[in-house]
Specification:
3 helices
C-alpha cells in the first residue's frame, strides 16, 4: 500500500493498514505466540515446546488463515480501485 513495513507485530501492521478490530484482535493472539518464541528469554527455563500445546498450534493456524483471507480480500479490493 505504499508504506514501508516496520516491526514484527502483526497486529500493529494490520492496525496501520486500517483493518477492523476483529482482524487486529486475532493478530494480537498470533503476536502472543510469536514474540516469546522469537525472544527466547521470555521464559525463565525450558523450550517453547514446553509452553505450547497442539491446541495452541491449531488455534494459531486457524487465526492465521482468517487473517490471510482478510488481507487477500483487502488486496483484491485495492486492485479494483
Amino acid at each position: 500500500m505504499g508504506n514501508e513495513p516496520s516491526g514484527t507485530s502483526i497486529s500493529s501492521l494490520l492496525k496501520k493498514l486500517d483493518f477492523g478490530d476483529d482482524v487486529v484482535n486475532l493478530a494480537k493472539k498470533i503476536d502472543r505466540y510469536f514474540i516469546p518464541i522469537r525472544y527466547m528469554v521470555a521464559w525463565s527455563e525450558g523450550l517453547p515446546g514446553d509452553y505450547y500445546t497442539i491446541e495452541d498450534a491449531e488455534e494459531a493456524i486457524s487465526y492465521s488463515k482468517l487473517i490471510m483471507k482478510s488481507v487477500e480480500e483487502k488486496w483484491k479490493s485495492l486492485k479494483r480501485e
